[in-house]
Design a protein that fits this description.
alpha/beta, 60s Ribosomal Protein L30, Chain: A, Alpha/beta knot, 2 domains, 7-stranded parallel β-sheet, 12 strands, 33% helix, elongated
Length: 267
């Protein structure tokens, strides 16, 4: 059972994992240095623990203790109990869902282990917005995709905002980072996947046509600003568009992913 510790001082050093949560650069450095990530909200905290991640600690207001009693009973990690006003002072924002957990990261798995048995995969190149990454994971999980691969410069799926937007699906969908950006797509083709890049390239065909009849598919999505690099666009086996009305040529990458996943799942 977690040890409940009442906190009254916002400068208590035991709360270091939870400070300055709005400072993205500081948090990225701190979380990488200490090998941790944060889960926010009762549902996401529960899903992180159920997925087997080891808690370092919990932080929550008293009213959330009963609802998370089953989670707290599984661990010896400390649970820091403090008022919601004090939690806001520590974290830098209103913790309206009442509960946070700091958990230990795991070593990233190999690409081959993530792809084992997979038929539908999402491949992300340089998507840097944490909200978009979280939304992409949520769509992929909801529509039956088996794995996600990320280029080295993609945003962290375990950053607090990503985890929150994904509603914890980053814990259930296997994922890892690609060690070789340049030959990533040819390597996927060699592994038996047909890589389908979402792009406005002149030879792009409607997504329904691009994925029709395929067995193993890797949908390839590019960055929020410039889309796919020329290397990945040209290296893909097929190029696809989402048909839309005249005068509008694109969707937000998270929305485009949802549409493409839906079409691909129905292939």
């Amino acid at each position: 059972m977690a040890t409940l510790l009442e906190i009254t001082d916002p400068d208590d050093p035991r709360l270091a994992d939870y400070r300055d949560l709005r400072d993205v650069e500081l948090r990225k450095h701190l979380e990488a240095e200490h090998g941790l990530f944060l889960a926010e909200g009762a549902k996401v905290v529960r899903r992180s623990v159920e997925a087997g991640f080891t808690p370092r600690s919990f932080l929550m207001a008293p009213r959330w203790l009963e609802g998370l009693d089953d989670v707290l009973s599984r661990t010896d990690a400390p649970c820091y109990v403090l008022s919601e006003a004090l939690a806001e002072e520590v974290t830098g924002f209103h913790v309206h869902r009442g509960a946070l957990a700091s958990l230990e990261r795991r070593p990233l798995p190999s690409v081959s282990s993530v792809l084992e048995g997979a038929r539908s995969v999402l491949v992300l190149e340089d998507i840097v917005d944490h909200t978009n990454v979280g939304a992409i994971f949520r769509s992929g999980a909801a529509l039956g995709f088996d794995a996600v691969l990320l280029a080295p410069r993609c945003a962290d799926p375990l950053y607090r905002r990503s985890v929150k937007v994904a509603m914890g699906t980053v814990f259930s969908v296997p994922w890892t980072r690609l060690p070789d950006w340049y030959d990533a797509l040819p390597s996927l083709s060699a592994a038996g996947f047909t890589t389908v890049a979402l792009t406005l390239a002149p030879d792009a065909v409607p997504i329904e046509e691009a994925v029709a009849g395929l067995d193993r598919v890797a949908l390839v999505l590019g960055s929020e600003g410039h889309g796919l690099s020329s290397r990945w666009e040209q290296a893909a086996d097929r190029r696809a568009i989402i048909p839309m009305r005249d005068g509008i040529d694109s969707l937000n990458v998270a929305a485009a992913t949802a549409v493409a996943c839906y079409v691909t799942a129905r292939r």
